[in-house]
């Protein structure tokens, strides 16, 4: 039982590589078990903890906690601190970034007009699709039939789209402005 976390990690890596969970015979080989009974016991324990579930066809699938990742107490970005014991909790990234799954999309960022807000080319923004936004929200907007990522602003009675890079002008719609969604998060993958 104390090996369950290590076994779960191997199953998570397998899932990342193959997009599915392996059958019992492959789990047995992957984890070095000599028979299927320890696999069945492990699967039962992981199901009780909601890491695994079964499909109607009795295949394994990720459970609600399968994608949890440890989130450590903190780390200083300034001067180093003593390492000591790091306490951690767990976090599922979807639960952290996605409040409304049915109306949330991910959008890859191209261009550098928002770099002063820390939104870099190649980042992915988490966008909650809605057609209403507040002044100051970072939005995906359709302005004169073209998509753009900017901060929603207002001058007099007209909405504007404000870049976060002085090399770009404020966009003042010529005909129409429609809000596609509001940015609620972002992430990037370092190489």
Q: Could you characterize what this model shows?
A:
There is one protein chain. With 191 residues, the protein is of the alpha+beta class. It folds into two domains: 1-97, Winged helix-like DNA-binding domain superfamily/Winged helix DNA-binding domain (Arc Repressor Mutant, subunit A, Orthogonal Bundle); 101-187, Ribbon (Umud Fragment, subunit A). Helices cover 21% and strands 31% of the residues. The protein is built from four helices and ten strands. The protein has helices spanning 4-18, 24-31, 36-48, 93-97, and strands spanning 52-54, 60-62, 68-72, 88-92, 104-108, 124-129, 138-143, 146-155, 158-162, 177-187. It has a six-stranded antiparallel beta sheet with strand order 5-6-10-7-8-9, with no helix packed on it. It has a two-stranded antiparallel ribbon with strand order 1-2. It has a two-stranded antiparallel ribbon with strand order 3-4. Helix 2 crosses helix 3. The protein is elongated, with a radius of gyration of 23 Å. The mean pLDDT is 88.
The CATH class assignment of the largest domain is: Mainly Alpha
The separation of the N and C termini measures 35 Å
Gyration radius, in Å: 23 Å
The H-and-E topology, N to C, reads as HHHEEEEHEEEEEE
Please work out how many helical segments DSSP would assign.
4
Major sheet: arrangement of strands = 5-6-10-7-8-9
The share of residues in helices is 10-25%
Q: What's the name of the CATH homologous superfamily of the largest domain?
A: Winged helix-like DNA-binding domain superfamily/Winged helix DNA-binding domain
**Class from helix and strand fractions:** alpha+beta
Largest sheet: 6 strands, antiparallel
> Which second-level CATH architecture of the largest domain applies?
Orthogonal Bundle
Number-wise, the strands total 10
Morphology: elongated
Q: What average pLDDT do the residues reach? A: 88
CATH topology of the largest domain: Arc Repressor Mutant, subunit A
> Ranges with pLDDT <50 over ≥5 residues?
none
Strand content: 25-35%
Total domains, how many? Answer: 2
């Amino acid at each position: 039982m104390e090996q369950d976390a290590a076994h779960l990690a191997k199953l998570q890596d397998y899932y990342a590589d193959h997009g599915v969970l392996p059958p019992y015979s492959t789990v047995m080989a992957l984890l070095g078990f000599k028979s299927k009974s320890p696999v069945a016991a492990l699967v039962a324990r992981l199901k009780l903890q909601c890491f695994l579930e079964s499909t109607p066809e009795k295949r394994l699938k990720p459970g609600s906690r399968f994608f949890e990742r440890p989130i450590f107490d903190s780390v200083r970005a300034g001067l180093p601190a003593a390492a000591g014991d790091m306490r951690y909790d767990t976090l599922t990234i979807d639960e952290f970034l996605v409040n409304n799954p049915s109306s949330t999309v991910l959008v890859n960022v191209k261009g550098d007009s928002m770099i002063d807000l820390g939104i870099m080319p190649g980042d992915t923004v988490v966008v909650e699709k809605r057609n209403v936004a507040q002044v100051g929200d970072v939005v995906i907007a359709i302005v004169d039939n073209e998509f753009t990522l900017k901060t929603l602003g207002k001058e007099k009675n007209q909405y504007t789209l404000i870049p976060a890079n002085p090399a770009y002008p404020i966009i003042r719609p010529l005909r129409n402005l429609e809000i596609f969604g509001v940015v609620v998060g972002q992430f990037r993958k370092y190489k």
